[in-house]
Amino acid sequence: MESQIQRLIVIGAGCFGLSAALELCQDEAFASTHITIISASEIPDKNCASFDINRIVRTDYTSPLYASLAAEALEIWRHSDWGKEQRFVESGLLMLGEASTVFGTENPCSVTQ
Ligand SMILES: Cc1cc2nc3c(=O)[nH]c(=O)nc-3n(C[C@H](O)[C@H](O)[C@H](O)COP(=O)(O)OP(=O)(O)OC[C@H]3O[C@@H](n4cnc5c(N)ncnc54)[C@H](O)[C@@H]3O)c2cc1C
Prior knowledge:
Layout: E1 7-11, H1 15-26, E2 34-38, H2 64-79, E3 96-97, H3 102-106, E4 111-112
Parallel strand pairs: 1-2, 3-4
Cofactor: FAD
InterPro entries: FAD-dep_OxRdtase, FAD/NAD-bd_sf, MTOX
Organism: Periconia macrospinosa
């Protein structure tokens, strides 16, 4: 069903604001909605938290919703154009912890001291 909302303003053009705006633009329910992004700086904003290329994408969240969203996102980054041209590079992940911690006992990728 098409939304009755005529105008939507997304404040902030970091990864959250841009993702929200993209999702809205791709949703047929908002096909007639005028969507505007307002940001304090140019895009990309070099001072925002989501700027630069050094971020970890991981699925080991305690929240099942977060974990499944992260797994879904990883698939998109791996298998769509989004991850091309070096936008997504999997360099691996090494977790270090005590043997008594959950990482040390249950995660096969971890190394314990
Ligand atoms: C050092 C560091 C390392 C991190 N590492 C990771 C990691 O490895 N993995 C991970 O998943 N997460 C990581 N995070 C967290 C992640 O970067 C943030 O959760 C995410 O970037 C937040 O995105 P955002 O769009 O909410 O904010 P931002 O990316 O900060 O974007 C905010 C946007 O809002 C604009 N803005 C600000 N104030 C206003 C205003 N008053 N009016 C209009 N526009 C405004 C800014 O110009 C900017 O465009 C890290 C964060 C930091 C700081």
